[in-house]
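Regression test attached.
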Amino acid sequence: MRTDPVVLTVAFGYLALLFVIAAWGDRRAEQGRSVIGSPTVYALSIAVYCTAWTFYGSVGRAAESGPSFLLIYLGPTLAMLMAPFMIRKMVRIASTQRITSIADFISARYGKSSSLGALVALIALIGITPYIALQLKAITLSHAVLVNYPEAADFRLADESFWVDKSFWVALVLAVFIILFGTRHLDASERHEGMVAAIAFESLVKLVAFLTVGVFVVFVLFNGPMDLFSQVAESPRLVGALGLDAVPGGATGWVGTLVLAFLAFLTLPRQFQVLVVENVDERHLRRASWLFPLYLVAINLFVIPIAMAGMLLPFGNSDPDSFVLTLPLSAGLEGIPLLVFIGGLSAATGMVIVETIALSTMVSNQLVMPLLLRSKRLQLSSQGELAGWLLGIRRVAIVLILLLGYLYHALIGDSYSLVTIGLVSFAAAAQFAPALLIGMYWRGATRVGASLGLIAGFLIWVYTLLLPGFAQSGWLDPDFLERGLWGVGWLRPYALFGLEGWDIYSHSLLWSMLANVGILVGVSLFTRQSPLEQTQAALFTNAMNPGLQHTSLWRGQTTRGELQSLLSRYLGANATARILADQKSSRDNSDPAPPAMIARAEQALSGALGSASARVLINSVVRGEALDLESILSILDTTSQTLEYNRRLEQKSNELAKIGEELRTANERLRELDRLKDEFVAMVSHELRTPLTSIRAFAEILRDGKDLPEDKRIHFLEVVVLESQRLSRLIEEILDLARLESGRLTLTPQKLDLVSLTRHSVDAVHRLQEDRGVTLQLDIDMDEAPVIGDPDRLEQVIINLLDNAGKFADDDDPKVRLHLTRHKEHFRLSVEDNGPGIAAEERERVFEKFHQIKRLSSSAGKAKGRPRGSGLGLPISRGIVAHLGGRLWVEDAPQLEGACLVMELPQAPE
Amino acid sequence: MSESRNETRTHARLITLICLAALLFSPPLVLIFDRPAEQGLSWLPLYLFVVWLIVIGLAAWLMEHRQEDS
C-alpha cells in the first residue's frame, strides 16, 4: 500500500479535491452565497499559519529544544487577543483603501510610494523563499520516509541532475496547481473565496491527521499519558528535555522567540493575506480571536507525547522531524501513515498556495506593473487587456517563486532542520512590523524613515541569519562565522558587537529591530512628509474614525469619458459599467466626473494593481490637484478637535446650568425677602398706627372736653396709658425681631434650671390669667432640668407661650396646661390649651411675622378683655429658642384637644 | 452612550487580559514553574497549556459576552 503509485494517486486525488472545493467556493461566491461568510471558516483559514513546519517540525523542535516550540504559537495567541484593536484597524484600512497585500499596505501608508512597495515585495521574496523551500523539503522528505520505510529514507540530494530530484517535480506540480487554483480570474477586490474555503478545509485535515497520530501514540503504543510519562521519567536521557534548560538562549531566547512569533504572525505575507485581505467581515475577528488560539492548542496537544515517544522507542536515532510518520510506521500500520502524509501535504500545500499567491500579487503589483507603467512600454490597446497582462505576470511569478524555493532547498536545504529554516523567514518578515505597526499609530512616520529602517533591518537579517546559513551549507567560507568579516572580532554574525550567549534568532531580532525601529523613528523626526503622505498617514492612523467614511477627497478634474476609457482599458467593460453605474449624474461623456466617482475609480484600480500604480494611472487623466489635501487634513483635525471641544463645551454648559439654577434660587429668595420686608413695613405701620390713633383720639377728647366728668377722664387716661404700654411693648418686640434677624441679639447664656425658671414665669402670669378666668394646670415631671440659656429671654418665651395659650383657650371655660418633661437628651416644655386648635397647614405659618390666627369668635374674646396679639411673639420666641440650640413647634394637644406649642432645649452638659 | 461605555469596559478588560497573558507566558513567571516534579520532568509544559487554555477561555467569554450585550 505504500508503493509510489498508491501514494501519488492519493496525493493527486487530494489536490484534485482541493481544486473542486475551491471551484465550488468561487461558484458560490459568484452566486452571492459565500461559503466563507462565517467566523469559524475565517479562523480555520488563519490556521494556514500551521505549516509542514508545525506538522513535522514541532515534534523535532520539542525533541531538540524542549517547550520552546510552544512559543511559535503563544506569540500568535497574544496577537489574536489584540485582534479587536489592531487587526480590526488593519482590516478597516485594507477595505477602505482596497489593499491587496502587505507590500501594498505599507506602500499606501507612506504616500502610495512605489519604491517602498517594491522594497517590501523584494524583502518578502527573499525572506520567504527559505520558508517555501521548507515546505518542498517536508513534502519530499515525508514521501521518501513513507515509501522507503523501514530503510533509511534517502532524501539527501543526489549529485545527479535536478530532474531526478523529486523536490523539483513537487515544486512544478504545485506551481501548475496554484496557477490553476489562484489565478483563474482577476478579481478587482483581490479576494480568493475559493482558495480560502480550500485552506479552511486543509486546516481541518491537518488537525484531524495530527490528532489521530497523537491518540494512536499515546493510547495504542502506550497505555495513556501516565504510562508514557512515567517511562520518560525513568529514562535519564530525557529527564531534562522539557525544562527551560533545553531552550536555546534560556530566558532571553524564550522572550526573543515569543516576540518574533508575535511579529511574524502579523507580517508574514500569507498571514496578512488571510487575516486582512481575505477578511469578509470585520466582526469575524471577534470569534476568531479565541477560536484560532484554541486550534493552536489542539494541534500542539500531542507534540510533546509524540516527541517523547519517538525518543523513547528503540529506533529513536531517526530524524525527530519525521517522528510523526515513523512512529505509526514502526507499528506496522498502513492507513495512519498515509493519513499523516496527507495531513503534512495539507499543511505544506496550504502554506505554499497562500504564500505564493500573496507573493505573486506583490511581484506583479509592486515590482512589475510600476516598471511597465513607468516605461510606457505597456500600450494597452484593446479593452480588458490588462487583466491578461496581470494574470500572465502572476503566473510567471508563481513559477519563479516556486523555482526559487526549490533552488534554496537544493543548495542549502540540508544544512538546517525544519524549524531553523522557518525561524529565519520569521525574522525576515518581522522587519515589516515597525513600518506597519508604527505607521498605523504614529502619524509622523515618514516614507524615508520607513524605507531606511527596512533596509537597515533587512541588511542585518541578511548578515546575521541568511549569510551564516549559506556559510554552514558550504556555500561561503564558514571562516567568517568564527572570526568575523575580515577577521574583525565584533563583526561575527552570531555575536555582533560582542553580544554573546544569545540564541541566533533573538540575537538577530534584537539588532535588526534596534536598527529598524531606531532609524524609522529617528529619520522620521528629521524628514518631511509629502502632502499625499500626510493624507495617507492621517487616513491610516484615524482609520477607526467614523467621520472619514463618506468623505470625498478628490478635487481634480476630468471627464466621464476619460475616466471610462481608462477603467475599461485596465479592468474591462463589465467592471467599468459596475463602477460608473449608480451615478445619477448625466450620461454625457464630456461632463466632468464627480469627485466620488474618481475616488471609486482609483479604488477599483487599486484593488487590481495596487495603490501606487492606481495613483499613477489616475494622475494620468486627472488635471489639477488631484486630491484635496488641505481639506482632508482639516477634516481629520477638526473631527478629533471637535470631539474634544464638544466634551469641554458640554462640561461648561453643565456648569453654567448649575450656576444658573443657583442664581435663580437666590433671586427667588431675595424676592421673597423683599416681599416679606414690604409686608413687614406695612404691618408694622399698621400695628403702630392702631394704638397711636386711639391714644391721639383720647388725648384730643381730653384736651377739648374740659367739662368731662372725672370718672370718664380717668377712664380715658387709663386707655391712653394702656395703649402707650402696648405701643412700647410693640416697639420693643419689633426691636427684638430686628436684632434677631440681623443676628445682633445679645444673649447671655448660662447654666440654669428650667424647672425653677418655669415656676417663676408661671408666677409672673398667674395673676393675669386668673383675672381672665383661665385655669392653669402645671405638670412638671422632674425636680431639676439643667439647660443652657439666657434666663430673661427664656422667661420671655415661656410667658409668651402661656399668654398665647390663654388668649386662644376656650371662651367659656378656658384651660391651659403646662407640661415639662424629659425627652432623651432634651427637655420639652409644652403649653396646650382647649381652644379650637391650629389647622395642620397653619402650623408653620404661626411663626411668620404678624401672622394672626383668625379666631372664629374673636369678638367674643375681645369682649372678655383679652387683647389680640401683635403677631410677633411666636417668631421672636422661635428665634430665641433657635439661638439657644433648641426648637419650637406646634403639634396636637395631647390632653386638652386644642393647640399645643412645644419648646425643646438640649440638656446642659454636666 | 451606554453602548460605547460598554465597549470601553470590554476593551479595558481585554487589554488587561492581554497584559496578563503576556506576563504569564514570559520569564520570570515561567521560571517559577520550570522545576522538576517528583518523577523528574519539568512542570513547564503543563503550566503553559493550562494558562493557555485559561486565557483562551477568558477571551472567549469576553468576546461572546459582548456579542450578547450589543
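Expected vs. actual: identical. Chain B has a mean pLDDT of 79.
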